[in-house]
TrEMBL record, chains A, B:
Family: Belongs to the PheA/TfdB FAD monooxygenase family.
Residue stretches making up the FAD-binding domain: 5-408
Organism: Trichoderma asperellum (strain ATCC 204424 / CBS 433.97 / NBRC 101777)
A GO MF term: FAD binding
Limits of the Phenol hydroxylase-like C-terminal dimerisation domain: 450-685
Biased composition (Polar residues): 476-488
Keywords assigned by UniProt, alphabetized: FAD, Flavoprotein, Oxidoreductase
Protein name per Swiss-Prot or TrEMBL: FAD-binding domain-containing protein
Length: 687, 687
C-alpha cells in the first residue's frame, strides 16, 4: 500500500498533544493525532491549572468551563512544628498574588479538560477546516527522515509506520484495576513501549508521510528515543519518593480546604491540594521506601501507606476517608533535553523533553505552554503564511522556559523535602526561606511572568541589555529588523504576554476583558492605543494611521488572508461568524482602544474604516473599537493606566497569535509605523 | 390496555414545560412531558432573558452558559423625529438599571436555552431520580377528571388520552419552509389542534392516569379549552400588526448594536434588539396591513414588507441584509385567564393563561416564572413533604404577576404604537412619557422587583398594610401563623426574591454570589446573619440558635429528608456530591453569614455542628459558613450593608426553595426562633 500523506502527525493525545491539535483544527491543517492508549484519563493525574493556562483556554472559548467546574485554590497555609513538636499554622495568605490575572490557580481533573479540548477540536471543523479525530490505540513503530528534502517546503520528509494495536494491547492490565496499581503511569512504572513494538504477530500497520511530526508522547517518549544522539534527557533524580492520594477526606484538620505546605517534626512533609467535588489531593513524603541507594521497593507503596504517613504528619488531627478516587507515587528528579527539534521537521514537547516533580502544578501547564507556542507557528508555516525560519523560535523560547522550570523545581523540591527548623526560637529559618522561595516564584509558577527573549518574533527595546531577569541572559538568535520603543506602554514589555484589562465596546457599551477580543485564531493583532480622540489632532493621527495600515499592511495585496474556524468563541455567541462569509480577513487584525469618552465618538462616522471593516454579507464590524471608560455595571477598567500608556500620546502594541507582545511602537508618524512593516516583513511571506 | 400511571403529566415542551420538567427531574418525580411538535425550535421565537430569569438559570447551574453565549443588551437609545422630520438620537442610557442584579438583560435564541434545559434534565437522573425524556409528536386528545377523588392524595384523578402523531402530522408543512411562512406559530396563524384531533384514521393512542396535569401548551392551549367554563381568556386585541425580522443587518444606522426605540414622523415605530452572532431583531409596525376592522390580510405580510417599512422609519440611514434567520408578524393584544388551576390537579402556565405582545421581552420569562413557581410546590407535594394547600399559592402568586404584566404591556404597547410629538418645540411630550414608563417598569420587567403577597408561604411583616405597590392590594388568602419582624433586614422584604450579594467562604476564602449557594434543589434555606461573632456573646447566640435548630427543626425526627439529584451545580464541580451518600439531608438547609473577620473564626472549633454538618462518607461540610469581608481578589461584598442587617444584632432570613423570602425574624431568643417553627409547621407535613 502507498503511504498516506499528512501535514502534521502528532504522537500522543495528552494535554500537550491536544493543545497542538486544537491549533491545527483552528488553522485548518491536515493533521493526524495518535495515542497508544485506548481511552482518555478519567481520574487522577495532573490537576493544577495556572493563571496563564486559564487565559489560554479562555482564548479558545473554554476558559469559563474550566473556571466554573474547578476548585479555585485561593489560599495557601504553611504549617510547621511548634515548640511542643506539634504542627501549627505558621502563616496563611493568598495562593495567587492579587492582580496578576483575572484568574487564580484552579484545580480540576485532567480528563475533564481533555474532554473540553476534544469537543472544541471537533467544533472547529468547517468546509475549510478538516475534522481532526483523536485516533486511540495507534502507535508509531518506525520513523525515518529524508534529510535530502528537509528544506523543501512541499516535501513530506518524515515517514512513520503506525501500528493499530489490539484492544488488549492498548489497555494494559493495570488500567483495568487502576485503583489497585496506582503506579501505572507513574515515573516508577515500567515503560511498555518496547514490549508492544516487539510483538509482531498479526499486527496491522500503515505508513504515513508527514511534513512535520511532533512527539507529545510523555516522559518515556518514543519519538525522542528514536531521534537518538543529541536528544538525551539530562539531569538527575533524587531518592525522595512521594505518594499521592485523591480522597474525600474525613478530618478535623482546619485548613483542609486550603492549599497547605506542612512540615512535621519527625515524619517528613506533606502538601494538601483541595480539589473539585469535595476531593482533596494529599502528597506525602514516603521515607520508608526511600532506600537511599536510588532503588525503590514498589511493592511497599500502597494507599494505606500513604494514608498512614499523612496521619503521622497531621497528628494530632485525624484523617480518614470513605471515597478514594486515585493514588500514585513518584520519584523526584529534574531532567531536560538540549534539543527540542530536528531540522524543524520533528519536534518534542511536554514531558517528552522536560520532566520534574508535580507538586508545583507545573507539568500539564508547561506542556500545554510548549504546544501553544509551537502550534500557531507550525500551522501558519504549513499554510505558507509564515516564514519557516520562525520555527527556530520554538526551541529558543520553550527551552528557556524548561530550564527555568527545572531550576525552580530543583530548588522548591529540595526545600520542601528538607526538614525545617522548628520555630521554637522565633521563626524557623528554612520555613521563612521556603515561603520566600514560594513568593518569588509566583510570577513563574502562574505563567504570567514568562518573558520570551528577543528574536524575529520579539523586537528588542532600544535600550535592551539582554538581561532576562533571574540571572538569565538572552541567547544569540536572529533578530527582527524592527525595534520596540521603550516607555510608550510601560507595562507592555516585548516578549511578555499582553495582559488583559477591562475595556468597553464603543458600539454597545459592553465591558470586555480585552484578551477575549484576541481569540486564538492564528491572527496577529495590532492594538492601537489611540489616546484621547475627542481631540481633533489625536483623532486625525489615529485616522492617518488607519489609512496607512489599510494601504501598507491590511490590503489583500499586502497581507495574506486567513480563513477562520467556527466553534466556541470567547466573544460569545455560538462561535465566530466570520466563516459565514467568503471574504477571509487579513492575518493582521486591528483593534482600537481609545481614551475619549464613548459619547463623544460615533464609530462609523468618526473613524477610518480600518477600525470597522466592511463585509458585503456581514455588514460593518462593530467589534473592533473599545473605550477606556466608566461602564454601566462594572466600573472603570483604568486600562491606559494599567498598560502604562499616556492618553495624550498613545502607542501601538503588536501582539503575536499566542498573545505575546512582539513590538511596541509609536502611534504618531511614519517612523513608528515602519517598525510594524519591518516586523511583519520578517515574519510573513507576502508583506 | 390498562392506563399507565404517572405523577405529573406536562403538556407542552416549550420554555414553561421544560422549566417544570427540570424541577421534576431535580426532585425525582415520575413525570411525562409530551409535545405535539416533532422537534424543538432552532431559530427565532423568544430571545430576551431578564435578570431574574438568568438568576434562576444560575440556580440550576446553567446561568453562565446563557450569559456567555448571549448578547448582553446594555444600552437603550430613544430616537424620534427632529424639527426636520428626520429621526435623531434623543436619549441613550443603560437598558438595565445598575445594581438590580449581577446580570443584565440578555438576548439568545430560545432553542439554545431549551437545549441547556433538556441537557440538565437528563443530567439530573440518578437511582432516586427517574430519567425524564421529552416525548415529541405526542398530544392529548381527551382529558377527564374524577372529581370524587381529587382530595385523595394517593389517587390519580386525571385521565388523559395521548395520541402518537405521525411524523407528517407533527411537522406541519410550514415548518419545512419556515422562512417562507414566518407566520407559523404567530398569533396570526391558524391553530391546527382540532384538525389533528379530528383525523382518526390509523392513529395510535394510549391512556394515562395522572395525579397532576399541567398545560404548558401555549396560546392555543388545548388543556385550557378542555377545562371549559371559567377558564376563558379575558382581554382585548388591537388592530396593530407588527412584523419581526431576524437579520444580520448591513446598515449605517449608528445604534444598531443598542436596543433602540425609534419613532418616525410618518411611518410608525420600530424597535431594534441586537442579538448574538451578529444578528439583530427588528420590530416594525405594519400600518399597511392594519385594516382598522380587526381583520388582517396575512398574504401581504412578507420579509420584504417588513424591511421596506424599517427602511422608511430609519431613513436617511440605510438598511439591507444578506442573512435572514427568521421572520414573523403578530397582532397586539392582552388576555389573561381568571383561573390558573382546577382542583389543584390541573394547572395552566405560560401563554396558556396569559398572552400579550412580545416587545418587552417578557413572554418566555413570565412563562418560565410560572412553572418555576409551581414546580417545587408540585414536586414536594408529590413527595408528601409539603402540605397540599400550598398549591393554592400558585394561582395567588402568578395571577398577580400575569395581571401586572397585562397592565404593563397594555400601557407600553399603546405608548409605543402611538405617534410621538416631535421635539421641535422642546421635548416631545409623549416621548418623555414613554421613557418614564420604561424607567418605572424596570423593576417589573427585569423580574427582580416581583413581590408575592402574604400567604402561607410569605409571612406578613407586623406592620404590613396589604399594599403591594403600583395600586395593587393583596388578595384575601390563608396566612401563615408566623409573622416577619420589620426592620431586621431592611432590604429583605418578605415575598421578594432574596437578592445576591458577594460573600466569602470561611473554609477557603473563595468569593461567592450568595445566591449560588442556594441552588434550586427543593430545599428551604435558613440564612443566619450571625453578626460579629468575634464577640463572645454574639458567638454564643449563634451557637444557641444552632443547637435549637438542630433539636427543633433539623433532626430526622423533626424535618423530612430530601434526596438531592446530581447534575450541574452552581457551586461548581461536575455536580452536587450529596447524592454520593445514603444520608439524605434535611429539607431545611442552614447557611451562616457572619461579620467577624475570617481570621478570627475557626469553622470546626468555634461553631455549632449545624453550621458544618457531618456525613460519615463525605466528612464535614465546609460549604455552609460565609464571611462578609475583604476577599483576596474581588474586593469586599458589603453584604450586611446591602441586605440592611446590623452586624451588632443579626437576623434570620428564611427563604423558599424558589429563592423568595418567606420570613424575616430575630437571631436572638426563642420568640424569634418560634416564628421559624410556626412557618415551617404551616408548610411541611412532619414538623
Amino acid at each position: 500500500m502507498e503511504p498516506s500523506k499528512v501535514d502534521v502527525l502528532i504522537v500522543g493525545a495528552g494535554p500537550a498533544g491536544l493543545m497542538l491539535s486544537l491549533w491545527m483544527a483552528k488553522l485548518g491543517i491536515k493533521t493526524r493525532v495518535v495515542d497508544k492508549r485506548t481511552g482518555k484519563i478519567v481520574s487522577g493525574q495532573a490537576d493544577g491549572f495556572q493563571c496563564r493556562t486559564l487565559e489560554i483556554f479562555d482564548s479558545f472559548g473554554i476558559g469559563q468551563k474550566v473556571w466554573q467546574e474547578s476548585n479555585h485554590m485561593l489560599e495557601v497555609s504553611f504549617w510547621n512544628p511548634g515548640e511542643d513538636g506539634k504542627i501549627r499554622r505558621h502563616h496563611r495568605g493568598p495562593n495567587t498574588q492579587p492582580n496578576l490575572s483575572r484568574f487564580t490557580e484552579s484545580v480540576l481533573q485532567q480528563g475533564r479538560v481533555e474532554s473540553f479540548l476534544i469537543d472544541t477540536i471537533r467544533a472547529s471543523a468547517s468546509p475549510k477546516h478538516p475534522l481532526i479525530e483523536i485516533e486511540r490505540s495507534v502507535m508509531p513503530t518506525t520513523l525515518s527522515i529524508d534529510e535530502s528534502c528537509v528544506n523543501d517546503e512541499d516535501a513530506y520528509p518524515v515517514e512513520v509506520t503506525l501500528r493499530h494495536l489490539t484492544e488488549e494491547e492498548a489497555t494494559p492490565t493495570q488500567r483495568l484495576s487502576n485503583l489497585q496499581d496506582g503506579l501505572y503511569r507513574s515515573n516508577l512504572a515500567e515503560d511498555d513501549t518496547e514490549k508492544l513494538i516487539a510483538n509482531t504477530s498479526g499486527v496491522r500497520e500503515e505508513k504515513v508521510q508527514a511534513k512535520y511530526v511532533v512527539g507529545c508522547d510523555g516522559a518515556h517518549s518514543w519519538v525522542r528515543k528514536t531521534l537518538g544522539e543529541g536528544f538525551e534527557m539530562k539531569g538527575e533524580s533524587t531518592d525522595a519518593i512521594w505518594g499521592v492520594l485523591d480522597i474525600i477526606p474525613i478530618t478535623d484538620f482546619p485548613d483542609i480546604r486550603s492549599r497547605c505546605m506542612i512540615h512535621s517534626a519527625e515524619f517528613g512533609a506533606m502538601m494538601v491540594i483541595p480539589r473539585e467535588n469535595k476531593l482533596v489531593r494529599v502528597y506525602t513524603q514516603l521515607k520508608e521506601v526511600s532506600t537511599g541507594t536510588g532503588r525503590v521497593d514498589r511493592s511497599q507503596i500502597t494507599p494505606e501507606l500513604i494514608l498512614q504517613t499523612a496521619r503521622k504528619i497531621l497528628s494530632p488531627y485525624t484523617l480518614d476517608y470513605h471515597y478514594i478516587d486515585w493514588w500514585t507515587a513518584y520519584q523526584i528528579g529534574q531532567r531536560v533535553g538540549d534539543r527540542f527539534s530536528k531540522h524543524n521537521r520533528i519536534f518534542l514537547a511536554g514531558d517528552a523533553v522536560h520532566t520534574h516533580s508535580p507538586k508545583a502544578g507545573q507539568g500539564m501547564n508547561v506542556s500545554m505552554g510548549d504546544t501553544y507556542n509551537l502550534g500557531w507557528k507550525l500551522g501558519l508555516v504549513c499554510k505558507k503564511l509564515l516564514r519557516p525560519e520562525v520555527l527556530d523560535t520554538y526551541e529558543l523560547e520553550r527551552r528557556q522556559i524548561a530550564r527555568q522550570l527545572i531550576a525552580f523545581d530543583h530548588k522548591f523540591s529540595r526545600l520542601f523535602s528538607g526538614r525545617p527548623a522548628t520555630d521554637g526560637s522565633g521563626e524557623g529559618s528554612s520555613m521563612s526561606e521556603f515561603q520566600e522561595a514560594f513568593r518569588e516564584a509566583q510570577l513563574f509558577i502562574t505563567g504570567v511572568g514568562i518573558r520570551y527573549q528577543p528574536s524575529l518574533l520579539v523586537c528588542k527595546e532600544n535600550d535592551d541589555t539582554g538581561d532576562l531577569g533571574g540571572g538569565l541572559q538572552a541567547e544569540t538568535a536572529p533578530q527582527s529588523s524592527a525595534a520596540s520603543t521603550a516607555g510608550l506602554a510601560t507595562n507592555c514589555r516585548p516578549g511578555t504576554r499582553f495582559a488583559s484589562q477591562k475595556v468597553m465596546a464603543q458600539s454597545d457599551a459592553r465591558p470586555w476583558e480585552l484578551q477575549l477580543q484576541m481569540p486564538s485564531d492564528g491572527r496577529f493583532r495590532i492594538v492601537v492605543f489611540g489616546g484621547d480622540i475627542s481631540q481633533a489632532k489625536q483623532l486625525a493621527t489615529v485616522n492617518e494611521l488607519g489609512a496607512w495600515l489599510q494601504a501598507n499592511l491590511l490590503s489583500p495585496a499586502k497581507s495574506p488572508r486567513i480563513s477562520l474556524a467556527p466553534g466556541p468563541d470567547p466573544r460569545g455567541g455560538s462561535g465566530s461568524s466570520q466563516w459565514m462569509t467568503d471574504q477571509d480577513p487579513s492575518i493582521v487584525d486591528v483593534l482600537l482602544v481609545h481614551a475619549a469618552s464613548r459619547e463623544q465618538i460615533e464609530l462609523l462616522q468618526d473613524l477610518h474604516p480600518v477600525y470597522h471593516p466592511f463585509d458585503k454579507k456581514l455588514g460593518w464590524d462593530y467589534g473592533k473599537v473599545f473605550v477606556d471608560g466608566q461602564t454601566h455595571h462594572e466600573g472603570h477598567g483604568r486600562a491606559y493606566e494599567r498598560y502604562g500608556v499616556d492618553p495624550a500620546r498613545g502607542a501601538i502594541v503588536a501582539v503575536r497569535p499566542d498573545g505575546y507582545i512582539g513590538l511596541v511602537t509609536a502611534l504618531q508618524g511614519e517612523d513608528g509605523w515602519k517598525q510594524l512593516q519591518a516586523w511583519f516583513g520578517g515574519l510573513l511571506r507576502s508583506v
